[in-house]
């Protein structure tokens, strides 16, 4: 094995407004350590690219293009929803990874994703012990759901929180102006399968200067239809209108999702969607109010034009830290955010063991949810507010964001045959 080894970076799971900022941090930092790290490859469509030997040579991109990733949303190299099975269940996958890693002299693996991605990264990190191949695998956190443990927050969340808070405030102004003779209730559905962090961010739209009547529905609180309708009615009678922010993961008391389809996603999770129209119809049928509803869906996680400056900085910092951790010989760890103080907001980069992150979720503590279950506490505001601070606008051209599209030139394959996913 050559002393100078190559690196593989890959993106996984749902993309975010700042996922590429982490990629930028990884690649720019690796380029500054050419004495230790040789080429930096990217897996096309995440770990699938590694398994199929479909690698991208980021060295073909000029510095200007890589720098442009910092303000470009989504996943520049393609992402995937694909979870490695255990070694006992599918040894061939791991043997294939080693074949690809050996063929391309890859000694560093940086996987950028959420909880399931942390599990994949953990399994790759164990290749040294299980199959005798030296690899250093570092996880870079990413998830708009903000549900990874250990890290104070997850890159991607601050920007989606800012988008949802802004959208909730702006839509509420719209509804307030029309409520006398038209719409009285607006329902916004946001992401969050098991954790209500994004719905909580919608509550930031109301403050001492903006007395907006907001009802939030969280996965952490069982949905009580009677109490919900009473709260909406009370808000409409007092303020003339009401805004509802509902998490896609809101559940009935028996544990069923409010809007659960019969289909499953690639990770085996129930396919969600439709909580907003269900709640809105409930409001119309039971209270008789005219309504409008919207689903933030991909808009909330792709809105780089209004990204949180704090979020962008943290995403880049964790990408940079991942490379530095690898250079210090670390393996099977995740770069994490450590909060030092709320006001003034201070943070630093820490380290978490992957075994403490993989397949674990961080829910909103009950101390963050108001006593009635439909809002947030001051403690929650103190946590959320710093994460949406600052603007980091991308460059514009002809009135639109001028995002970067990479060439993504393929690395010549060295192995024979194709590997089936």
SSE layout and pairing:
Blueprint: E1 5-11, H1 19-31, E2 37-43, H2 47-51, E3 55-57, H3 63-68, H4 91-103, E4 106-113, H5 115-125, H6 127-131, E5 136-141, H7 157-178, E6 185-190, H8 197-202, E7 214-217, H9 225-239, E8 242-247, E9 260-264, E10 270-272, H10 275-287, E11 291-295, H11 297-302, H12 309-327, E12 333-341, E13 346-353, H13 378-384, E14 396-397, E15 400-401
Parallel strand pairs: 1-2, 1-4, 4-5, 5-12, 6-8, 6-11, 7-8
Antiparallel strand pairs: 2-3, 9-10, 12-13, 14-15
Helix pairs in contact: 1-12
Structural write-up:
The protein is an alpha/beta fold. It has 2 domains: 5-143 and 305-358 and 391-401, Rossmann fold (3-Layer(aba) Sandwich); 157-303, Rossmann fold, CATH 3.40.50.460. It is built from 13 helices and 15 strands. It has helices at 19-31, 47-51, 63-68, 91-103, 115-125, 127-131, 157-178, 197-202, 225-239, 275-287, 297-302, 309-327, 378-384; strands at residues 5-11, 37-43, 55-57, 106-113, 136-141, 185-190, 214-217, 242-247, 260-264, 270-272, 291-295, 333-341, 346-353, 396-397, 400-401. Helix 1 runs parallel beside helix 12 (309-327). The chain is elongated, with a radius of gyration of 23 Å. The relative contact order is 0.18.
List keywords for this structure.
421 residues; alpha/beta; Rossmann fold; 2 domains; 4-stranded parallel β-sheet
Coarse shape: elongated
SSE pattern, N- to C-terminal: EHEHEHHEHHEHEHEHEEEHEHHEEHEE
Q: Please bin the fraction of helical residues.
A: 25-40%
- Number of individual domains: 2
């Amino acid at each position: 094995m050559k002393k100078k080894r190559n690196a593989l970076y890959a993106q996984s799971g749902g993309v975010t407004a700042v996922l590429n900022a982490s990629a930028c941090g990884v690649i720019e930092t690796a380029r500054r350590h050419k004495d230790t790290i040789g080429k930096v490859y990217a897996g096309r469509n995440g770990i699938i690219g590694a398994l199929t030997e479909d690698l991208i040579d980021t060295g073909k991109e000029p510095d200007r293009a890589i720098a442009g990733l910092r303000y470009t949303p989504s996943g520049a190299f393609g992402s995937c929803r694909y979870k490695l099975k255990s070694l006992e269940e599918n040894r061939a996958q791991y043997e294939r990874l080693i074949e690809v890693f050996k063929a391309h002299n890859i000694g560093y693996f940086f996987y950028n994703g959420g909880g399931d991605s942390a599990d994949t990264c953990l399994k790759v990190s164990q290749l040294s012990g299980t199959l005798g191949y030296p690899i250093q695998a570092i996880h870079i956190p990413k998830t708009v759901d903000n549900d990874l443990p250990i890290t104070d927050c997850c890159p991607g969340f601050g920007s989606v929180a800012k988008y949802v808070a802004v959208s909730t405030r702006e839509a509420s102004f719209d509804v307030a102006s029309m409520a006398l003779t038209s719409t009285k209730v607006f329902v916004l559905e946001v992401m969050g399968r098991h954790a209500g962090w994004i719905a909580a961010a919608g509550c930031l739209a109301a403050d001492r200067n903006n007395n907006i009547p907001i009802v939030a529905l969280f996965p952490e609180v069982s949905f009580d239809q009677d109490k919900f309708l009473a709260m909406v009615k009370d808000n409409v009678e007092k303020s003339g209108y009401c805004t509802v922010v509902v998490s896609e993961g809101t559940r009935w008391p028996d544990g069923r999702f409010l809007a659960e389809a019969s289909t499953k996603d690639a990770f085996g999770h129930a396919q969600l969607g439709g909580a907003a129209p269900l709640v809105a119809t409930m409001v119309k049928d039971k209270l008789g109010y005219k309504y409008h509803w919207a689903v933030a869906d991909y808009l909330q996680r792709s809105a780089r034009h209004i990204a949180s400056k704090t979020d962008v900085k943290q995403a880049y910092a964790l990408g940079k830290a991942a490379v530095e951790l690898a250079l210090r010989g670390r393996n099977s760890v995740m770069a994490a955010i450590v909060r030092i103080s709320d006001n003034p907001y201070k943070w630093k980069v820490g380290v978490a063991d992957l075994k403490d992150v993989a397949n674990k979720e961080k829910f909103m503590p009950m101390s963050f949810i108001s006593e009635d279950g439909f809002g947030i506490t001051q403690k929650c505001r103190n946590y959320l507010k710093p994460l949406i601070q600052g603007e980091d606008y991308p460059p514009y051209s002809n009135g639109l964001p001028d995002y970067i599209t990479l060439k993504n030139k393929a690395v010549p394959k060295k192995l024979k045959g194709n590997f089936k996913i």
